[in-house]
Amino acid sequence: MAEVVIALGLMLVWVIAGVALLRLILGQAISYKVTNVGIALVFSLVVFRYLQQIELIPAHPTTLHKTLALASGLAAGLLTLKIRQDIWKRLHLAVIVGGLIFTLLPVVLANTLAPTVYWPSPSDQPPTQQAPKLPAQNTIVLLLDEFSASAAGPVVDQLKDAGLHVTSTSIDPAGKNTINVIPAIWTRSNFDQSVACGPTQLCSASHVLDFAKVRASSANIDIVGFFHRYCSIQGLRSCSFPVPTATDGSGLACSFPGLSMLEFLGCDEKTDIRALSISMRDSMQNSLLEAPFWQKGGILFAHLLVPHPLMGVPMKSLSDEYTDNIANGARLVKLVAQKAKLVFGNDFKIIIFSDHPLRPEIWCAGKQYIEFGCTPDASQISTKVPLIIATPSVETPAHKKIKKNQAVFDLLFK
After folding, report:
1. Within this chain, do residues 141 and 284 fall inside the same structural domain, yes or no?
2. CA 51, CA 68: separation in Å to the nearest integer?
3. How far does CA 46 lie from the centroid of its chain?
4. I need a surface site. Which of 27, 37, 45, 151 has the fewest CB within 10 A?
5. What is the pLDDT of residues 22-42, one digit of tens each?
6. How many domains would you assign to the chain?
């Protein structure tokens, strides 16, 4: 949060200095016009981003979308030139107040409307109802991000190699992307239009999930995760959330000339997004193997950045990279299985599922994989995600009742 404040402070200084410089060079009348055109262009950009968030414009806009956005921004800018200066003076305050309302109102509403949610809880009861007492257990729940059901073979094989009895099936995801699926699992509501509407809140139409208003149903739950604000959940025994060395806030701050030399901001112009992605993945895997769960038992939930394609500049085709990432995840799963046998003997369970399958329509919409190829192998493409259950001994196949990943946590109550 501090780095975001620094970034916004620097932006404010830049805007004030820029406006003052414009007035000095161009005079008050012309500087007003330039400022007003700038406001119109920024407003057009905000509208464009909002339409992307609600999926009226695709995440990777076409040339037509970009052209229309630019034309709309220029048209809005030209219209401001028709407005008299005395009217603009009165409108400036309205623009400032309107901007504050536009920024803060969603946060206030989300904080007010978000209900208290109990997690985990059985899917046959409202998530706002306190969950029944969880049975004593040693259960590891691994959410392998972007894991297609058709590509689950290597993970199943590694579990079997570790000497476990494995059952697996394919289930439907509760949405297209992580930002849709996780809140849908936690609330059992539709989050197809999910957008961030506060520091810990996600909103979709009338539905709100505030991770700060989620209460753990047991004091024996550890979480390792990323992307979502899992560590805001109340009552967890422990939570690990990897912090990349460069975030959006610090990236914005570091973009100002000369500030990359300020060590406290952690600026590093040579840092590669792919290296950050690998660092986050490895950090979470280490945290998984070091959680208090291994000394105290209970429940360990980990949302891992694997086999999710690595971000940044690719080094190989999407298909080859995805194959490598699945192999990485399978090796980790075997380590987890071996450690569970060593620590808990025959008294544990491993549950593996995913938020959504591989999304070639997203990864191939951009240009990052064009050089190496962006057509996934047929075995990597699926509309479903896997549900894998591994135990030291044969158990009743409870997974047969699970049809969607919204209900996976039901297995903790059986």
Report:
1. yes
2. 13
3. 21
4. 27
5. 667 767 667 767 777 777 777
6. 2
